Amino acid sequence: MIRVPVQPALFVWARQRARMDEAVLSARFPQLPGWEAGETHPTLRQLEHYAQATHAPLGYFFLPAPPQEALPIPDFRTMRQGLPRLSADLLDVIYTCQTRQTWYRDEAVIHGETPLPFVGSATLATPATEAAQLIRQTLGFSVDARRECPSWAEALRLFIAQAEQAGVMVMVSGVVMNNNTRHLDPQEFRGFVLADALAPLVFINGADSKAAQMFTLAHELAHLWLGQTALSDAAMVETS
Q1: What is this structure's pTM?
Q2: What's the whole-number average pLDDT of the chain?
């Protein structure tokens, strides 16, 4: 039986990247402790199954050392203390959204859509009250309409509809690509924005509370007005 020589650190990297419990993964792959200790190597079929289970590209296991993966967008998070390396879930969500945005933008170009004037229309020198008023005017946001919403869920639906009516593609999900076994962690990120004048996209972590999602959407829209692509987890204080 032919076995594939894999550096032990790559098994640890894949496990930590997938945020999977060592005991649970070892129950599925009893040879894992030996692989991580360098005492034995997997067969190609075992390696393929392990790569699939940890959502890691198979080719990475043939590297001499774990890859240094970087976020493909600017990182403005503040809650990262104590968290392990970037998760496969976060990276896969960003890559998926970038792909969808490319399709969205290509469609806008084909149909002769004009750039949205509000993207990048503000700067850090713009007073916060002025920027907020510009956003409210563009979205048609009404405090009275918000007060009439019976719940945070209804308020969030209204807010998303207003953003989409303005031309922003808003995606909300608590899992990776409809995979209910891959739950997103609000402690890792609350949302991100991919700024583009033709195809602006905001992603909101649906595993967060509705109030937090509402705040995240507002926060990411502010980044959009600044023309900034960014990953963030801005702190908020929830009130009743």
Answers
A1: 0.87
A2: 91
